[in-house]
Specification:
The chain is an all-alpha fold. The chain has 15 helices and no strands.
Amino acid sequence: MNEILTKKFISLFFIVFVEWVAFGMITPFMSFYGEYLGASYLELGMLVGLFSLATIISSVVLGWLSDRYKKKSLLLITLGAAAVAQLFCGLTESLLVLLIARFITGASSGSISIVDSFVCHITSEKNRVKGLAYISLAMALGFIAGPAIGGFIYEFTKESWNYRMPFLFSSSTYLAAFILCSRYIQEPDKAKGTNGFSFSQVLKMVKSKQSILFPILSLALIGMIISSNLVLFPIWSNQVHGWHALENSFIFSLFGLVIVLMQSIGVSLLSKKLGMNRIPTIASLLVFVSLILLSFSFERINLVYVGIILLAAGYGIISPVNTSIISLQINLNGQGTLMGILNFVKSIGELAGSIAIPIMYDFYGPKMLFPQMTVIAMLILILTISINRKRSHEAR
């Protein structure tokens, strides 16, 4: 536990928290802002899709660089770029400029590979899952506070600026994270050994080991579900239940709150009682059940809340646990590259979800949104059960 209470880790925790407050501020308004600028459903998908595409590119590059160069400098570059990009988002009258700025913000979000590598360097294997869970907790806390702050700003801003002002506050929040990073983050001690694995070496390891490949694919598929919800849930809830920005801000904050509870309490309790290998199966089942409930929530508004809570619980568990399981497959010199590949594949899933599912939504409408996601959740459950059976067989 002492590793979690060090100045290095606490500083990193607060940096991630502030960064995700900035991200969460604009989440409930992104789709409405895009519509305000004349975006189609496909272009609304591109707002998230370009973000994910940029993350795909940057996560691998930044992860690989973090094995070789100073992690603090790389974090400062990404935070500064995000602050500038969000400023342009808030001031633009052009959908094209908004798309470009979202691409830059997405490239900056590849810093999660740096953060994950940072955590792996400053925690032991015993405390790895705790460290990664607490970083995920910082993200979730930020995602609770961000939409709530954004909703408050929206409600108390003049109508001509109510979509823009959350972006401007988001920019200033990224700037605050930049200042915190420059003052309080310390460069971790370099691991002994080589300067790091080559990208091809780590990629070969990922492809040849199901214990790495299947958890990564599971995270990519759940990324599809989460990213498509970020794009379409505000639109779906407006068309089906008449909800607007304030109601969606509450839902996104509820989503984040459940993640906080699972990552601060749930992961630790489940790992003690059931062991790490069984937890992903439980999380996958929660995601699957949540989407079934959401599929039947047209006439039953209570099912929306129950479905969102279960989806958040499943996601809050599977994300840090699978990341920890993956990270333990390689030594410290390759952590940045491995985390880069992990976030690369996750971002591909997010990109696919934010483009393909909005296209399907345009064709089939709101009734088929969650049934499509249920099929994806079934694939996650199959992958998780398969790798769990393989581990059980190997243990015998």
